[in-house]
Amino acid sequence: MIKMIQFKKAQIAVLFVLFISLVGMPLVGLVVDYGLIEVQRARMQTATDAAALAGAYRLGAGGETAAIDESEEVLGTYGFGTDAGDTVDAEQNPDGMHQNQFRVQLTHTFHPIFSGMMKSTPTDITTSATGQVSSYVELSITLAGEYGEDGPHALLGIRGKTSPYRHGDPYSTIKGLDGGPNPEHRPDGYHFFVHIPKPDLNYKTINGTAIADIQIWDPESYGEFDPGSPIGIEYTLYKPDDTPQDLEDDVQIAQYTEKGYQDRAMNNSWVTLPGFQINLDDPNTPPGRYHLQVRSTKGNATNCFHLRASPPLPLDVVHRSDLTDDEKAAFDELPSGTIIYAPCNHAVRCFNPDNGTAVSADGALPIKFLNDYQASLDIELGWVPPGPDGHQVIHILRFDSDCGAQYVSYWNEDDGENTLYPDGVRIPITKERDQSKWSEDIIRLDDSYTGSKWHANYESGDSDQTAWKMWYESSEDGNGGIAYLVE
Fold first, then answer.
1. Residues 363, 344, 240, CA angle at the centre, nearest 5°?
2. Residue 330 contacts by C-beta under 8 Å, 6 or more apart in sequence?
């Protein structure tokens, strides 16, 4: 009897082993391989999302071919792509209605590992993503004044690299709100476009000369910082090219890093820095859109400045002989080629705002409202076109606009200043909503919108420093700006 029981136990053991070998192990293999497939699918989706975003952003700079190349390069960083034996389909305007969209589809063949003992066939895994690029608005730098004025209500202003994040400049400072690294820090600073001339205008006809001075108001920071932590500002000028949406390939023609005390002769004056005088008859400096990069190099305070372009103003040039002995000492420290102009209130031949030039900010506008000014200001923003079907969505973002500011509203020149957006009301500015953070106002327009120049009515605060951005979603040409996933 005992032997029979032992024999049956042995049979059960054999059957169990056979079951595990023939059924259990393959099932376990299938489960493990399914898990591996899902892990691989997640990795592929991450790569596809990144590729679609990169390709969409690249549309404005180089078109579909550049976008495809960029997406393939991004896929390669994740270990996927055509070089890895995968199938990649990438295209602009996937639905035939959105030129600013870019779709990437990735197909990867997964070879079973543990379930291979059952001779399972390879499995194709496919992921896809669509990115959309929306255009930043080129923001006017007039700041509630007239083009070329030095004030009176506000100036451009950027902070030193070691300034606190909460002081109104999210891009210059290297420190975040918690004191750690600032993820928004832009080592390249802010970008401005100097149009010499504006589109469809002839600069030489308007001004009778081919010479243009790119002028900076008060480019130095002497007297604007704690002596223990001087702020440093660098100005870099790039010439026009045939890829205006791609700033990375721009060719530098001049650069100047201000030196604080040594540059004190530039204080409160319009200045043409060495290399910032343009001869439009020179093939190396043709008419077009000049790119001016302004970035902070050190310090923890604010440098206020302004920008304009003009034909030379010989009657307003400051000469050494016009200065006191103390002023001459500062003047003698200036680098060769520096031209200093008298402020408008002391000028003989004041700046002409209708000289055919213009300056705009690309992507972000750093604003410093003056210490003694607090009022309701009309700030010109920029032009927003209609979408392909007329509908348009505009996003306006303000950083840290809480220093005594009260309200903001928006209007466009077609509807008039009495038609307020969004929703016909003024938006209250509060510490809870606005302090040390980005606040977003969204304007949704129907198919009756035909395109217009937009303004903000802003009740500013005393000594308010802030940065503004503005972008729109629908774009027929895919000009670069901000990229995000739509599916």
1. 35
2. 264, 265
Chain centroid to CA 483: 11
Check: CB of residue 150 under 8 Å from CB of residue 344: yes
Q: Is the dihedral of CA 111, 73, 133, 475 positive or negative?
A: negative
Per-residue pLDDT averaged across 300-306, rounded?
87
Residue 139's pLDDT is 95
Q: What is the mean pLDDT of residues 334-360?
A: 82
- Do 360 and 453 touch, CB atoms closer than 8 A? no
**What single letter denotes the amino acid at residue 17?**
V
451 with 308, same domain: the answer is no
Q: How confident is the model at residue 460, as a pLDDT? A: 82
Could you tell me if 295 and 184 lie in one domain?
Answer: yes
Alpha-carbon distance of 421 to 412, in angstroms, equals 9
User: Taking Cα atoms as reference points, which of 436, 404, 368 lies closest to residue 158?
Assistant: 368
**Sequence-distant (≥ 6) Cβ neighbours of residue 179 within 8 angstroms:** none
Q: Distance (Å, rounded) from C-alpha 410 to C-alpha 468?
A: 13
Last residue of a domain, one of 104, 120, 135: 135
Q: Quick one: average pLDDT of 200-218?
A: 95
Same domain, 129 and 239: no
The amino acid at 288 = G
Domain count, the chain: 3
Strand partners for 105: 89, 128
DSSP H or E run through 104:
strand 101-110
- Residues 179, 325 share a domain: yes
Q: Is the same domain home to 60 and 120?
A: yes
**Which domain, by its residues, includes 347?**
137-364
- In a shared domain, residues 196 and 320: yes
Last residue of a domain, one of 345, 364, 383: 364
Beta bridge mates, 444: 393
**pTM confidence score:** 0.79
Q: What is the mean pLDDT of the chain?
A: 83
100 falls in which pLDDT band (50, 70, 90)?
confident
Structural contact between residues 368 and 401, judged by C-beta atoms closer than 8 angstroms:
no
pLDDT tens sequence across 162-199: 888 888 899 999 988 888 999 999 999 999 999 999 98
Find out whether 440 and 395 touch, Cβ atoms under 8 Å.
Answer: yes
pLDDT tens profile 210-262: 999 999 998 876 544 444 456 788 999 999 998 877 788 899 999 998 766 55
In this prediction, residue 7 has a pLDDT band, given cuts at 50, 70 and 90, of: very low
Statement to judge: residues 101 and 154 lie in one domain? no
Length of the chain: 487
Q: Which residue type sits at 123? A: T
Q: 122: exposed, middle or buried (C-beta count within 10 Å: 0-12, 13-18, 19+)?
A: exposed
Mean pLDDT, residues 43-59 taken together: 89
Contact 244, 289 (CB under 8 A): yes
Q: Are residues 323 and 221 in the same domain?
A: yes
